[in-house]
Amino acid sequence: MAALAAIASVAASAPASAQTPPPDQPAPPQAAPPRTVRLSNETTFTRWANAVSYAKAYARPSASARQLGRLRLLTEDGFPEVYVLLASRQKAHTTWIRLRLPQRPNNVAAWVRRRALAQFNLIHTRLVVSQRSLSVTLYDRGRRRFRARVGMGKASTPTPKGSFWIREKFHVGGNSIYGTRAMGTAAYSNVLTDWPGGGVIGMHGTNAPGLIPGRPSHGCMRLRNADIERLYRLTPIGTPLRIR
Questions:
Q1: What is the pLDDT of residues 180-190, one digit of tens each?
Q2: CA distance 128 to 220
Q3: Residue pair 181/241 in contact by the 8 Å Cβ criterion
Q4: Which of 71, 143, 186, 224 has CB atoms 3.0–4.6 Å from 51's, for a disulfide?
Q5: What percentage of the chain has pLDDT greater than the value 70?
Q6: C-alpha span between 207 and 182 (Å, rounded)
C-alpha cells in the first residue's frame, strides 16, 4: 500500500506537459514535406528560361550543397543562354528550380533559385537524332512532323549521346561548310575541347550534300540545306534534343 501511495504521489506531481493527451485530442500539425512540381517531360511539353544573374547551381536545393556550376547570360556565340527547366520545389520561403546546365561534362542537372531566371516559356516540340539510322526526327506534341537524313561525327570525333536542347539559331552567309542555317545545341564534344567555343556541337547545313548520310564531321550534325531550312522553321528555341 505504501508503494502504491508513492506512485500515486509521483504521478500527481508530474508536469502537465508530460501527461498523455486525451485520445480525442488531435495530434499537433506536422510540417508538409517539400513538394516537387514537374515543369517538363521533354517529350510533349518543355519549359525553358533565360538567366538574369550569374547564380550558382547546386546538387540539391540548398545553398550549402555542392556547387555543380554557375548560370551565364550568353552562349559562346553571344546569344541569350537557354536553360531547360525540369522541376520546381518550394523550400521554406525560397522556390528552387532544377534545370539542365549547358557545360562539360554533358548531361548535368542542378538546382538554382527561381529569382535567377527570367520568365518561363512553354513549347511542345522534341528532336531525336539516331546515330544508328543517321536521321533526325522532329515531333510536335508527340506527333512526327519532320524527318531527314544526317551526317554525324566520325569515329575519332564522335557526336556525344545524351539529353540536350537547342540554345540558339542563326542564318549563315555565303557558300559555307555550315550551309545556310545553323542551330547551336547544349552538347559539347568529348574530344575537341580546345575548339573555338569549347567544342559546342551544332546542327547545320552543308556545302557537300553528297556526304549525307554518313559520318564525315567533327561531331556536328549536318543536313542538306533544304532540310535544315525546313527544320529551322519548325524548331523553336529550347526544343529538347535526344541523341542516341
A1: 999 999 999 98
A2: 14
A3: no
A4: 71
A5: 84
A6: 13
